[in-house]
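Subject: for your reference before the review

Hello V.,

The reviewers asked for a structural picture of the protein, and I figured it would be easier to keep everything in one thread rather than splitting it across files. Below is the amino acid sequence we used in the manuscript, unchanged from the supplementary table.
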Amino acid sequence: MNNFRTDLVFSHQSFDISERLEVLHVPGHSEGSVAVYYAARRALFVGDLVYECGNGSALIDWLPTSQVANYTRSAAMMADWFQDHPDVTVYPGHFSRLSSNRACQLLRQYVASKDDPTARCCTRCMQHVTTVFFLFGCFRCCPC
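And here is what came back from the structure prediction:
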């Protein structure tokens, strides 16, 4: 039996555990993506929103559950957020931690890359291909 209480979490909601945490809703990579800001340690846990990928245009937004328009809005919002929080250490779900400047740079590159109609078209095509892989369970056996 589960003795834990669960509630819905909303963007900019804060929790006092023993310290204060702020939840930021950053949909795009997936619908319910969130980032969690731990102000006392100036640490931001971002999941798959941003990670070191060479250039922000390579951030993965072509999964079947990804929504490019939401990802672009979230990326722009968080890039602005980083301008107000310049000394934050960013902990992504993949690879090594980032400085707030590097995370901001990657997010701005991502947003700029979505101005290109060809890039948006490629993303839609990739979403169709990956949808087929997900439907047939191919990612479960993928060695990568």
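For the response letter, the relevant points are probably these. The chain has a mean pLDDT of 85. The CA atoms of residues 98 and 112 lie 20 Å apart.

Happy to draft the paragraph if you're swamped.

O.
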